[in-house]
Recover the amino acids of this structure.
């Protein structure tokens, strides 16, 4: 069938487009989060399997800084709350409040990355010291990388909010940002549970 | 944006721009070309087999001793066929579901360019040396420092990670498009076969590729820094870790390469038979179930390691061929009740069934035959199932949608010649494995594989004239030479940047199927 350019397009109207965008965002965030979950899940599974098969596990020179690790969990849980605060503020057209929530979230994520770096620095063994070192360093690396990606995503959303690009009617990006960040929080909790709780 | 503004901005943004384009048709074409080029590169590597030093043909494909064998597998199976399927799906699926664009065009574009980066890194890795200890088909990961570690290994691991990312992004973009960008009336149950199967295999890829990435990361860290995560692979426990990580991806991947063909060829069959697929819901469910079943196949080989998963290991490998067989039965029923005619894609359906049938028959009789070399036999089977069947299915799909891709269908004689070249090439490439497996002389197998690779490469090169014709914009062919039944045939060929000027009312998976086309029950034309 030949194409013509004069006939009207069968494209969705504005309202339907917004609904479609929300669907896209939800689907994308859940699919990407599932991927991150499988990545971290694979590493945690490898950790637990190695733990079952090794005589020396955890490594003899492993220093468990439970206090810092637990504080990082608490910090990330707080970011989950503040990012939802930011989302709800946009939904209610409270831009100023949203920017404050974003600021707190970004500061907490910076604190998390700083704390994670501190934990890695205090490990006292490298990735090549033994199998335990390889898998622990890999897990910390993956969570750190995911947090950096999430931070970039949040900064982008923050700037678009400040630039009046996210509104009550168009806050799909905000929703997807929050979704992705929740998966990052879940990833750290899984690693924390494997390394610091089950040991 | 109003509808007109959306259309105008789509046209203005993408006109003449192939590098930063977000148009699914251009991204799809580039991915398809890149995938076919990678398969061609794999064939060229296989052409050089007689000059390699692998000696015994048993290790022809595993990469245990042959750099060329490993390069062939990586280029064709890890990069080429997945990229080509993603490309074809990126082009066709939005048209089949009535979408004007991809849901995440930048993600799909990122997948394209990440594939390119991964391909270049892979080529550099193989050019710089023989990557040791990264035989993806092997049950054991040889890692650690010392004799196994070299720069080529680390480069290849990095390249594989990049390719895993590209595969994940491509699958993610398609999955989200299917979930959220369908047009009004196009419910999930009204999607055509290829879109349904794409939904199944992209979901499996989104879930399994990150697990491969986890395994590759651990192996890369070990190669780079030491640590013996896999290096001390003497114990079953450690071997199991690698096998779970690699097989959770590898086992689905090996069959997922073939699963999209079930969807693409289902559309070829219904178009050729001029009627919707007989038992379409069954075919749809079986195709998606086959994709889902591949996800559980990782457990199949763990029985050899006395794994706790062993009892579950024997079922999924039987389920997938059974489901594929069910889909083939619906094809036969469709031909019986339709008015079949020869279309360019149809010979490839025959080839696909022949190749899968041969592999199934050999698997069925293998317990009754004295197999001298199990690895050799397995390599023959892998070549047929993971390379031959997907390649024939892919070629069939490309021929079927050639009017959409390039403006016109290939002449029937050209399609038949290409079919014969690819079928012969695949058979010859698989033959060395069987020769060694059945205790034959392994000295000349490299030569036979090279002959097969030459035929396959020739067959692939027959796509070049069509691509050149598109580049010259000689799209003076028919928009719909088949009286197609699915939505993509309701627009021009190739489609405009905005895909559709208007859409028909969608009440089924075959919205263009007219009542008067229906063949009365029991009448065979």
């Amino acid at each position: 069938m030949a194409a013509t350019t004069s006939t009207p397009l069968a494209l969705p109207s504005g309202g339907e487009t917004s609904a479609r965008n929300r669907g896209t965002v939800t689907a994308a965030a859940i699919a990407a989060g599932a991927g991150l979950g499988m990545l971290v899940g694979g590493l945690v599974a490898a950790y637990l399997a190695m733990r079952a098969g090794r005589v020396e596990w955890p490594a003899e020179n492993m220093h468990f800084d439970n206090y810092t690790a637990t504080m990082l969990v608490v910090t990330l849980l707080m970011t989950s709350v503040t990012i939802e605060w930011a989302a709800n503020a946009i939904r209610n057209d409270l831009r100023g409040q949203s920017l404050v929530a974003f600021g707190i979230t970004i500061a907490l994520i910076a604190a998390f990355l700083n704390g994670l770096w501190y934990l890695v620095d205090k490990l006292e063994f490298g990735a090549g010291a033994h199998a335990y070192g390889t898998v622990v360093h890999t897990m910390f690396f993956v969570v750190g990388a995911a947090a950096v990606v999430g931070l970039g995503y949040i900064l982008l959303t923050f700037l678009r909010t400040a630039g009046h690009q996210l509104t009550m009617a168009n806050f799909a990006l905000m929703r997807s940002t929050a979704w992705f960040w929740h998966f990052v929080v879940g990833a750290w909790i899984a690693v924390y549970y494997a390394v610091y709780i089950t040991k | 944006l109003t509808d007109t503004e959306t259309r105008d901005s789509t046209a203005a943004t993408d006109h003449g721009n192939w590098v930063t384009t977000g148009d699914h048709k251009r991204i799809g074409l580039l991915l398809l070309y890149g995938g076919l080029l990678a398969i061609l590169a794999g064939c060229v590597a296989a052409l050089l087999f007689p000059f390699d030093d692998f000696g015994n043909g048993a290790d022809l494909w595993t990469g245990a001793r042959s750099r060329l064998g490993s390069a062939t597998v990586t280029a064709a199976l890890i990069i080429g066929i997945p990229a080509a399927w993603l490309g074809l799906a990126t082009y066709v699926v939005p048209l089949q579901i009535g979408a004007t664009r991809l849901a995440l065009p930048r993600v799909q574009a990122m997948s394209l360019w990440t594939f390119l980066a991964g391909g270049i890194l892979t080529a550099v890795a193989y050019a710089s040396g023989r990557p040791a200890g990264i035989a993806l088909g092997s049950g054991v990961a040889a890692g650690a420092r010392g004799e196994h570690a070299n720069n080529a290994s680390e480069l290849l691991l990095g390249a594989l990670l990049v390719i895993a990312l590209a595969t994940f992004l491509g699958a993610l973009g398609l999955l989200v498009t299917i979930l959220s960008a369908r047009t009004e009336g196009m419910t999930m149950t009204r999607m055509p076969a290829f879109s349904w199967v794409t939904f199944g295999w992209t979901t499996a890829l989104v879930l399994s590729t990150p697990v491969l990435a986890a395994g590759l990361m651990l192996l890369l860290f070990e190669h780079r820094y030491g640590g013996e995560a896999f290096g001390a692979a003497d114990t079953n426990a450690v071997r199991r870790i690698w096998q779970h990580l690699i097989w959770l991806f590898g086992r689905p991947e090996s069959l997922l390469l073939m699963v999209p063909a079930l969807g693409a060829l289902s559309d070829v069959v219904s178009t050729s038979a001029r009627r919707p697929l007989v038992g379409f819901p069954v075919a749809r469910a079986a195709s998606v179930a086959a994709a889902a079943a591949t996800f559980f196949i990782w457990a199949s080989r763990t029985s050899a390691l006395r794994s706790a998963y062993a009892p579950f290991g024997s079922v999924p490998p039987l389920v997938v061929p059974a489901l594929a067989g069910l889909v083939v039965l619906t094809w036969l029923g469709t031909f019986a009740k339709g008015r079949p005619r020869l279309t360019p894609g149809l010979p490839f359906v025959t080839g696909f069934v022949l190749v899968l049938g041969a592999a199934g028959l050999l698997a069925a009789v293998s317990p009754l035959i004295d197999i001298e070399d199990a690895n050799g036999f397995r390599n023959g089977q892998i070549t047929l199932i993971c390379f031959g069947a997907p390649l024939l299915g892919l070629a069939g799909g490309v021929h079927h949608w050639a009017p959409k891709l390039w403006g016109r269908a290939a002449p029937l004689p050209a399609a038949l010649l290409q079919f014969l070249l690819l079928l012969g090439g695949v058979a010859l490439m698989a033959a060395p494995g069987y020769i060694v497996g059945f205790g034959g002389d392994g000295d000349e197998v490299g030569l036979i594989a090279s002959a097969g690779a030459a035929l396959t490469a020739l067959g692939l090169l027959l796509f070049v004239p069509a691509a050149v014709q598109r580049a010259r914009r000689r799209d003076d062919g028919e928009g719909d030479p088949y009286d197609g039944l699915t939505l993509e045939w309701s627009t021009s060929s190739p489609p405009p940047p905005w895909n559709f000027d208007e859409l028909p009312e969608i009440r089924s998976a075959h919205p263009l199927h007219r009542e008067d086309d229906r063949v009365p029950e029991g009448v065979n034309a």
Remarks:
- The two ends of chain A are 65 Å apart (CA to CA).
- Chain A touches chain B through 51 residues (CB under 8 Å).
